[in-house]
Design a protein that fits this description.
Blueprint (H helix, E strand, L loop, with lengths): L8 H4 L5 H10 L1 E5 L3 H13 L3 E5 L24 H9 L7 E5 L8 H5 L4 E4 L4 H14 L3 E7 L2 E7 L7 H5 L10 H4 L3 H20 L8 E6 L4 E6 L17
Parallel strand pairs: 1-2, 1-4, 2-3, 4-5
Antiparallel strand pairs: 5-6, 6-7, 7-8
Helix pairs in contact: 3-9
Amino acid sequence: MPKIPDRYSRFVVLRDVGPKGFQKIRNAKVAVIGIGGLGSISSTKLVTLGIGSLRMIDPDTVDATNLQRQFLYREKDVGNPKVHLAARRLQPLNPNVKIEPIKQQLTADTVDELIKGVEVVVDGLDRFAPRYLLNQACCRQGIPYVFAGALGATGNISTILPGKTACLECIYGGVDDAQQPTCETIGVYPTLLGVVANIQVHEALHLILGLPPRLAGHILFIDLNELRFDQFPIARHDDCPVCGDCQAPK
């Protein structure tokens, strides 16, 4: 086994990682969908961890309203594509990581190709319509999906294992985005985004290492104002139109 660079010395020494675990991380391919408040943080953590390949997907350009919480972008970046800017900022953090920026809308026609070949999908989206498409595609391809949402001072996270745990449709079926509050209407604490995204990455790391993810079959609710972390079990719906046909992860 080749010598592990010193930059990872405080990581590889962890009992759950070690040289063999680190090699799994170096071989892993992860997709982050949405490089905004959550995705900026999760992408950065994955790069510094030394993930082998990171696919970043986002169709948007930087808006001035993003700058307060999406730290990969600068004032001069307003109007430019997020994924290309994010890749340019992240690559110097770890030149050994292959970063694949894709500026494309996640639709029913594109979703399967966008996540094809990855080991884990990390959710950085802010609407349920594309999340439902992502959930369906992950089920079809047997790819674990680390779902998360954050709004105001509250967040929620769940790790979805196709064919084994409840899927997003089981948990939050039928949500109409038009009826939901948004960051534009009620805001979001940047501090909350850090908490949620770091837990997402830790769940993804467990999946890569072959360790049981703590939030598989569970959902974690976070209230940062109250400093409350409440975890609840969730069960698959026998009549779920999505996960009834899910493939188990390979």
